[in-house]
Amino acid sequence: MAPGALLLEAHREYEKSSQKADEYLREIKEQGMLAEAVRQCVEAAGHEYDSNTQKSLLRAASFGKCFLTDFSPEHFVATCRELRVLNAVRECSVGLPLTHTQFKQMTLQVLIDRLVYRQFYQLAIEICRYLKIPDFQGVSRVLKHWAACKVQQKELSDEAIARAVCLKVGDSLGVSYSHIAAKAFECGRTELAIKLLDSEARSGEQVPLLLKMKRSQLALSKAVESGDTDLVYMVVTHLKNEMNRGDFFMTLRNQPVALSLYRQFCKLQEQETLRDLYNQDDDHQELANYYVATSYREKRLDSRLSHLQSAVDEYNKAKNEFASKATEDEMRLLRFQKKLDDEKGAGLMGLSLQATMETLLMLGLYKQTDQLYRDFKVPDKRYWWLKLKSLAEKEEWEELEKFSKSKKSPIGYLVGGSSPQLAPTILFDFFNVKNISCASSSGLCGGLHQEK
Amino acid sequence: MAAHLSYGRVNLNILREAARKELREFLDKCAGSKAIVWDEYLTGPFGLIAQYSLLKEHEVEKMFTLKTGRLPSADVKNIIFFVRPRLELMDIIAENVFNEDKLHSTRDFHILFVPRRSMLCEQRLKEQGVLGSFINIDEYILDLIPYDGDLLSMEYESAFRECYLENDQTSLYHTAKGLMTLQALYGTIPQIYGKGECARHVANMMLRMKREFAGIQNQILPVFDTLLLLDRNVDLLTPLATQLTYEGLIDEIYGITNGYVKLPPEKFAQKKQGEASKDLPTEPKKLQLNSAEELYAEIRDKNFNAVGAALSKKAKIISAAFEERHNAKTVGEIKQFVSQLPHMQAARSSLANHTSIAELIKDITTSEAFFDNLTVEQEFMTGVDTDKVNTYIEDRIAQKDPLIKILRLVCMQSVCNNGLKQKVLDHYKREILQTYGYEYILTLNNLEKGGLLKPQTSSRNNNPTIRKTLKLWMEDANEQNPNDISYVYSGYAPLSIRLTQLLARPGWRSIEEVLKMLPGPHFEERQQLPAGLHKKRQQGENRTTLVFFLGGVTYAEIAALRFLSQMEDSGMEYVIATTKLINGASWIKSLMDTPEAQMH
C-alpha cells in the first residue's frame, strides 16, 4: 500500500477517534515515508474532480504535515489555491473541465485569456486578485479587454459607458485610456472616445489620437497643458498643414503658449511669417524690433534705411517715443556716415555715434564733429571727455585751447588755480598714465565730478 | 574619478552612474567600431559624466566636432551624432550624411539627441531626405548633471531668456523631467515649496507627471525632505552684484565653464632649478575646480579677503609636514613619511596653484577701478541715490568700458529702485545707444522685457521694506569668520538665500507680506508617500532641502547655502540645482541681441 493511501486511511481513523490512526501513522513514519505520503495526498487531490474527495485528501495531507518538522508548505498551499480556481472554472456555467495537468501546461495567463475571450471578466478579475497576480499582467489586462468590449455596447449612451469605464478602471496602472478611446473611435464613437481621453493622464498618448480624430483644437490645448514643447510643435505643424493660414493664426492666438513657440520656430526658420504674426496681433513694438533686426541683414544702405523707416513707423504706433527717436537718429547717422565716407573716405559706416566722433576728431574734422554733437544732443560731459582726450592724444594744443574757451567745461579741467595755458601739458600727462578713473576718484581733479 | 560626488549629504554619484549606464547601453546598441561627431556645446557637460576611456571601452575610436561639409575620414563602422535637438544642427548633419552617401560609404549612421528627441528635428531630417539613413535615433536623457557633491546643473544656457523673454517653457519641462528622474533615484520628495511663475509651472508639471505614473509606487526611502523651487526673477539683484567669494571672483574674472577655468599662463610657469628659463607658456593654464581638491573645497566659499590668511595657514601646515622628515629616524618612520609624500606633494602643488590664482585676483580686487565699481554697487544695494543719474556710470560710458559692465550697473540701479524715472532711464539708454551703437536697442528692449530695466510705474518702491524685513544689508559683515550669509557680498545678503533660510526657520508664514511684494505666487504642495516610507528621524539628524534655481544661480549664492548647511544650529543641509551656473556678465550676455551688420 502506498504511503499516501495509508495516510488517508490514518486520517479517516483519526476522524473516528480510533487509535488505529496512531498505528498507521507509526507505520509510515517507521518507513520514513511520511513526507512522501503528504506529497502523494496533495498531488492526488490535484488530480481529483470531486471536491469532496479533494477535501479529504487535502485534510489527510494537512494531518500528516503536523508530524513533520521542516516540511515546506508551499506545494500544499499552491495546490489548494489552484484547485479553487479549477473548481470555479469547472462550474457548469463556465464549463471548462480542465485537468490540473492541462492547467499547468497552458499556464494561468492562457486561462485568463480564455476567460476574457469568453467575457467572464468578473471571474477572471477575481482569479487574478485571488492568486495575487501583479496588476499589470492580471487585473489591468482584464479591465482593458472589458473596457474595449464595453465601448462597443451600442445600446448604452456615451455618458453611461464613460462613467462605467472610469468607475471600474479608475487609476489602475497599465490600463491606457487612450487604448480604450482608440477602440471607441474605431467603432465610430468619437464623442465617447473624447470623453474617455479626458481621463488619460499621459498627454503623449492623448494628443496623437485627438489629432487622428480631427480634434485639433482640443489636441492643442492638451499638448499645451502637458508642457511638452515637442508635443505642442507636433500639433502646431499638423494644424499648419491642415488649416488655411487665417484660421491657423486665429487658433494660435487663443493659445499664447503655442503662439510663442511658433514664433520661436519662425525666428529660426520663417522670418516672413514672424512679421505676419506680429502684424495680425497689432504687436507694433515687436514688429518694429523685427524691422530693426532685419535692417542689419541688408547689404545696401537704401534698403537698410527703408527697414529702419518701417521700424520708426511701428515704434510710433506702439507709442514708444524713445525708440522711434533713437531709430530716426540711427538713420540720420547712417546717412551722415555715408556722406562723409563718400566725400572723405573716412570709413565711418557702421561705427557708433561716439566712435564716429572719435574718428572725425582723429581726422581733424572738428567742424563735422561739432555738428554731430549738436545734431544728436550729445551730453556735454561725454563730449568734453571725448574731445579733450582726443585732442590731447593728438597734441593739438591750439585747438584744445580754442575748445576750452568756447564754453565752460562740464567736467572741469584741473586743480583750482592753474592757468588754462598750462592745461594741455597736465592733461596730456594725465591721459598718458591712463589713470582717468583713479584721478577722478582720488580727488586730484575735484572739478571732474561737478554737476553741470 | 568622481569620488567627490559621493562625499556629500546626498550621494550624487548614483545619478552619474545611472547616466553612465544609459550611455553604455546606447553605445552597445551600435555594434562595432564607432566615431562620435559632437555638437561642441555638449562636450563640456559630457566630460562630467564620462571620460574618453569609457567611450573607448565601447569601441569609440574617433571623435569629431560637428561641422559643415564633409566628415573627416575614419575607418569605423558606425558614425554617431551626439547633438542637441536644434534645427540648425540638423542641416549640418544632413549635409554630412549627404556627402558621405556620395562616396557610397557603407557606414551606419546613428543620432543621439540630448536631452530629448524632437519631432521637429526628425521632420527636418526627413525634409532633407536623410532620415532613412539613420539606423538608431535615440534620446539620451541628461537633464541634471552632477557638478559637485552638492551641486547639479542642467547647463541650459538660454533658460532665463526663453522663460521670461520668449514665453517658451521648454526648459521648465526639462526641469520637471529632471526632477522626476531625481525622484526615481532618490525617492519622492514629500514637500514642495516654491516662489514665482516658473516655479508654479514646474510644480504643476511634476504633479501631473506623477499622475501619469500613477500606480508605480516609488519604494525608495526619500533622501530629500523638501524641494524649494525659486524663480530667478524673484531675485534679479543678486546675480548683478559682483560676487566676492573666492570661487565667485574666479568666475567673475576668468569664467568657470563646466568645472574648468582657463587662466593666464604667466603665473604658472614651471620653475625648475638649474634649467634655463624656457619660453613662457602661451597656452592658457586649464584647471579643474571642485571639492575633490581638499584645499579648494576649504577656501572656495570664503570671502576673498579671508583667502590669504587661509592660504598662509595651509602653507605653514604643509611645510611643517615636510619638515617631519628630519624627525624620521627609524626605517619605519621614514617609510611612513614616504608613503605620505604623494598626498603632500599634491597638497603643495594645489597650494601653489591657488596662491597664484589669488595673486591674479588680488591684482584686480585691489585696483581702484574695482573698488569704485564696488562702491557704486553697494550704494545701490543700500538704496543710496538710486533715483538719479549716476555720475560713475556716465563716466564709465564716456570711457567706453565694456558694455556688459555698464548694463549690469544700470540694471542694478533699476532693480534697486524698483524701476527708473522715465527721464533717467531714457538718458541711460541714449548714452548707451550713442556710445556703443544703435543696434543695442534690441538688447535694451530685451532687458526691459525681462524686468531688469524698467520705467517706474508706481511711486511706491517696496525695496526698503523688503531690505529691512529680510535684513538684506548687514552693516558689519564679518568676512573672516562669518556669522551670516551677507559675507558673500561683503554686506549684501542675497535675497534668494534669505528666502531659503527663512523657509527652514521660522517658515514663510512669518514673511507673507514681503512674499506678496515679490513677483509670482508662492505655494506649498505635498506629495503622498507610500506607507512605510515615512522617515524616522534620528534625534539631531539634519533635514535635506533641494533648492532649485530656475533661470540660474551664482557661485556666491551657492557659497551662502553651503554656509547655511555648515551652521551648527541650522538643522538643514542644502543640495543645489539650477538650469545654469551664471554670473552677472554671462547672464546679461545671454539676454543680448547683437545683429551684425552685413553692410560695410
Task: Summarize the structure in short.
The complex is a heterodimer of chains A (452) and B (600). With 452 residues, chain A is an all-alpha fold.
Structure characterization notes:
- The complex is a heterodimer of chains A (452) and B (600).
- With 452 residues, chain A is an all-alpha fold.
- Among the domains of chain A are: 1-106, no CATH class; 214-281; 284-344, no CATH class; 351-407, Vps16, C-terminal region (DNA polymerase, domain 1, Orthogonal Bundle), CATH 1.10.150.
- Chain A is 71% helix and 0% strand.
- In chain A, helix 9 packs parallel to helix 11 (190-197).
- The longest helix of chain A has 24 residues, at 321-344.
- Chain A starts with a helix and ends in a 10-residue tail after the last helix.
- Chain B is α/β, with parallel strands linked by helices.
- In chain B, 45% of the residues lie in helices and 13% in strands.
- In chain B, the strands form 3 sheets. Chain B has a 7-stranded mixed β-sheet, with helices on both faces. Chain B has a 5-stranded parallel β-sheet with strand order 2-1-3-4-5, sandwiched between helices.
- In chain B, strand 10 (256-257) and strand 11 (260-263) form a beta hairpin.
- In chain B, helix 16 (403-416) runs antiparallel to helix 17 (422-436).
- The two termini of chain B are 51 Å apart.
- The chains are: A mainly alpha (452), B alpha/beta (600).
- At the A-B interface, helix 14, helix 16, helix 18, helix 20 and helix 21 of A face helix 5, helix 7, helix 8, helix 14 and helix 15 of B.
- Chain B: This is Vacuolar protein sorting-associated protein 33A.
- Chain B: It is a peripheral membrane protein.
